[in-house]
Amino acid sequence: MKICHLEPLAKLGMIMKEKLEELYKEFESQVSLLKNQADVLNLKAEYLGKKGSITETLKFLKKATVEEKKVIGPMANSIKEKVQKQVNQKLVEIEKKEIDQKLEKNKLDISFRDSLKESVLLHGGLHPVTLIQQEIEDIFLSMGFEVLDGPHIEDEFHNFEALNIPGDHPARDMQDTFWFHDKETPEGKRHLLRTHTSTIQVRGMSTRKPPFRFIAPGKVFRCERTDASHEMVFHQLEGMMVGKDISVSNLIYFMKTLLREIFRKDVEVRLRPGFFPFVEPGFELDMKCLICNGKGCSVCKQTGWVEVLPCGMIHPNVLKAGNIDPEEHNGFAFGLGLDRLVMMRYGIEDIRHLHSGDLRFTSQFKSY
Ligand code: FA5
Predict the structure, then answer these.
(1) Which CATH architecture best describes the domain 128-362?
(2) By alpha-carbon position, which residue is closest to atom 10 of ligand 1?
């Protein structure tokens, strides 16, 4: 603003007041649009800096009389303070916004938000062995069986001796296992990773009075050379029924019912003699290989049959180990290979897929 000549006090005061208010309004509208601190500081310099428009306007005060200064001075200071206050507020506002943006960008979301929920639903789920185990549990629960559990680390007594397999028995070689180099039990027995779920037979028998019936699913461990149908860690499901006058036909009835429910149709089975020291007579219940439909493949070792369900009538010595009088009670037992059953059910040609941890494989199974 150029003022070329001195005005009377009232007029000069009015002109300066109007001019300062006009400048302040102009500043206010500009500052509200700014988005970064550097621009705010530049704008401040344009108004309050050495050559700023407010500063320039106030230079006229030098020429004013004392009376004029008394009126215009406080007014000018108030405008300067208002500008400075606006600048400070804007700087704080921008800084806060920048911090919020940074926090939003680097935020670690540990809650189950939509994206996470989606990936859990897409990729999470139950393993096919668990799915089939749960189905079998339901089938047996509906037939009045209990479901028991037992430890993975067992002692020699429960894994072998109570099952009629003493220390020098050749049947121990059929189930080579992993032994622990730890202290023996008080009875002088060593510890091992259980080789079958039959260990739970003795534990179940000694805590129950006949008649009873239970199943016991779980992981088992064997020192095996792996191939299309053998793993070192696999799953079995033990079953046992004890009472009076139980016969082989009862055993066959339950086994056929189980397979019909699992495969939702009658499957072709064959029963052949099988040797297990804890049953007498003992059987191998094989089912027709559903991978090759009986033609012969690597899973059934070209025989057309897959061994899934060894079983038999409980040996009197095993009943005695469970405190049951074999003269009064008898029963049957079976030990189902769960992984092989899963293979038959879903047409899986190699057992090693099951525990490969490959999501492309496991995500194919219905899990909810
Ligand atoms: C036993 O383990 C007996 N305890 C089963 C039993 C229980 C018989 C009660 C009689 C009465 P066997 O070693 O055959 O038996 O194993 C049982 C089932 O486990 C087999 O039919 C097979 O389906 C499965 N199986 C055995 N070894 C393996 C392996 N290395 N990998 C995957 N599945 C296996």
Answers:
(1) 2-Layer Sandwich (3.30)
(2) 311
